[in-house]
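Predict both folds.
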Amino acid sequence: MNNTIKPPRLKPGDTVGIASPAASFFSFTNNWLSRARTAIEDLGLKVQIANNARHQREHLNPAPQLRVDDLHDLFADPDIKAIFCLSGGSGTNALLPLLDWDLIARFPKILMGYSANTALLLGIYARLNMVTFHGPTLLNGLSEFPKPLSYTLESIKDVLFTSTAPGPLEAPETWTDDAPSENSPRKMKNNPGWHWLKGGRAQGLLIGGNLHTLPILFGTPFWPSFHGKILYLEEVNMGNTVLMYAEEALAQCQQIGLFDEISGLVIGKVNNLSEAQEELLQKLISHYTSAFDFPILTQVDIGHTSPQMVLPNGIKATLDSEQNLFSIDEAAVV
């Protein structure tokens, strides 16, 4: 029986709190933040930015305790119904020992982010069995010019606003890994669809996040169980070393026994890969999972490309290559 704690769904008129759990060198202007705020308001929601969310964001600035203070304030505030992360970056694992677990458990709320926020999302799920949400951040997904892509917005509505199972997921018709612009839309390209690297069928609870961030939790009290689960992974290309780092992370996942536990694997698109690099990435995934027979679906629209879907940690899902099916089989909110 799935006994995870589900947060209340969002409703028009609710207030979303904005926190910045991840330290980041990503620079942004008020235009980016203003566009993201407008996008959230267009969903019928109000926005409240936490005290330290807009501080200069780099390593240890603001300090982990200040970032935790923001999260505690937002969880404790009865007017805040969800918490969206400002951006990715690094360092969210530093927050985990400082969290007030009793406070978070008393006031379960939607918490959404991705990339480095993986450590926070999975740490909370591991400690509290509370559903958390891998999805767009304000500066990466919700600040698109002139507005977020419709696929991203529809996924938010389907997963965060609706207390019924989202059901089968479909690839968007177009996608982009073009760099975001201050004042022009990104160049879109046709989406060839998702790719079955290995066939089969799996059912289990969804869990996952960023390929490099996830293994950081191994050996800590914040490492969740992956037994029987469908694992999803995404990675960002920040230079020509992405495949080297991906290989290291995949090898680590293999060596710590992660692939021994799971029932299925979903891999997100990686931005700015050449055709040859994409082919090599597929070979790396095949190599490090060759001893296992679970289904593997790749080039899925999660992570550092746009549009993005929202995936809830701790919710039942199905992979079935014969039916070309990836579905979320249970509501993530109540």
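Second protein follows, with its predicted structure tokens after the sequence.
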Amino acid sequence: MIRACLAALFALVAALPAGAAPVATEAWQVGPGLTYAAFDRTDDRGTVRVHVLTARWTQTGLVLDQVSPDAVASRAALLTMVGGDRGVAGVNGDFFDIGVTNAPLGVAKDRQRGVLHGPRTGRTLAFVITSTGVPDVRRISLAGSVRPLNRPRLTLTNKNSPEVAVDGIGLYTTSWGGMPGPDVVGSASVVRQVVVDGGRVVANRATLSAAGKPMVGRVLIGRGDGALALAGLRVGTKVRVGAHLSVPVQMAMGGGDELLRDGSLVTSADVLAHPRTAIGIDRDRHLLHLVTVDGRSESSSGYTLLQLARLMRSLGDEDAMNLDGGGSSEMVAKGPDGGPLEVRNAPSDGHERLVANGLVFRYVG
């Protein structure tokens, strides 16, 4: 099995474009249908260290899911999250509101916990596993509403997002971790907080509770026109609040730039080189590639988005998406022959950065 894994790695390296000479290679099988590999790649811009998790998405028992702390508005070490989820490998996930709410910017759906967060518009690009079990990179957004009895329906613009859209209405649940507080409305002066519990409005006020106070029920936060719309919900009003995603999927993870679509380069950004994390889909061979590129060091210079897109295409991917990078870029995997779960790349902070979420491989059944 290890011999087959190494053969696959060397085939991968051989497929790299001219001028990208590999200096060092290592590879092992993490588990059935899942391998880890690393190689150095050199071109006229310098040398980078590339780490690749290759997974066969049709492998029986191998599951890819999002992983995150219990509270959306919090961060944790990727190694801790993956290990706590019985994972065997993983990478960091979405961009997040670092230093303020710490909540992810995009969409996430967990296989067990359901839809955790997401906006109706804006950062809606995500990697998903569709309802039929096929991976995809697509736009997917929050679809939800507030339905007061005998009153017009109100549209939700956010669920557990770090900021409510201008003139929007955000839904916050106990998954957020406490009351959201003023940080989620930016500089808005017209705001409204409505608490729904047991299917009825139990509180409605024109000021927001302090962040972190215990939350009971579900909280609606209005901003601008959204606040004015919520003002009419009197205490005692029967209300139905629902939130789901615009497309049924098994799991979803938001990200940044689209890199590849149907084998064609989407990005042209070729100036700033940084540590990078990405996910790609090789539909012909039913493979997923989760990649980290080390950067900001003398031994590894990092990649631009265009370089990253070309790398993903060289691996055989038709579709690919950039995930959070910089000091957040991280890959963890179990070692050869069932060795311990460890950090496999070199995070540019010199240690693990606490992140909002990640992607995890685990075995079930």
